[in-house]
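Supplementary Methods, section 5.1.

A reviewer requested that the exact input to the structure prediction be made available. We therefore reproduce it here, unchanged from the version used in the analyses.
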Amino acid sequence: MPFLTTLLSGYWAAPEVATNIVILFNIVGALMLGLLVGYERSYRGRAAGMRTYGIVCMASCALTVITGYPEYWYGGHSNITNTDPGRVIQGIVTGIGFLGAGVIMRDGFNISGLTTAASIWAVAVIGILVGVGFYGAAIPLAIIATVYMMWGSKLEGFLPSRHAITVTVRFERDIIPTEDSMLRMAAKLGYQIAKGSFSVSEREGQHEWRFVAVSVGRGKNGSLIDVGHYLSGAQGIESFQISHARN
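The structure derived from this sequence is encoded token-by-token as follows.
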């Protein structure tokens, strides 16, 4: 029993406790920064919100910061004399890649979740920075990432751009559409059909075309409502579906 007492006392020795306090402060700081970035995603109703970001940032920090104190591992009874934090960081980045892939979703031509995946990767970096003690870099990175996600879309809206829409058109039975007719229709509405975006299917004599149309310039194209009104009055079209091509 004296051996067991000596072994356990190592976990509560003054240097061990002081080290745990330092690690705790790092973890709490990383959690706060992760919650800051995650709030923007939560505010916008994304699947990955404050809890996801806070946990990712905190865990990344914890895994990184403990590599700096190998002499205190296992109550100071570790034989490890040197560690390679780079390998730990590499493992974190690889693991976060799987988590980021899980929030990316594709629905036809629409891809959503890319910004969330990129920001999850960024918050892992914030946790790593806190873990190695680069607070001066971690705090501005968290603030910049949050501000950019909140206001980046406004900046994109201010700059010249060409937005895209996805169009699905189902034609009436026995109607055989042509590519030229679709190109002319898009041109009338101020759009160009993206090359290589056509997807054509046919079932029981009915053709269905799907494609991406890109506006020719801001203010020169019709809105989704205008496109809908045009398609609803076009001959040979039985039904259609249009939406913004999100990414």
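The two ends are 63 Å apart (CA to CA). These observations are discussed further in the main text.
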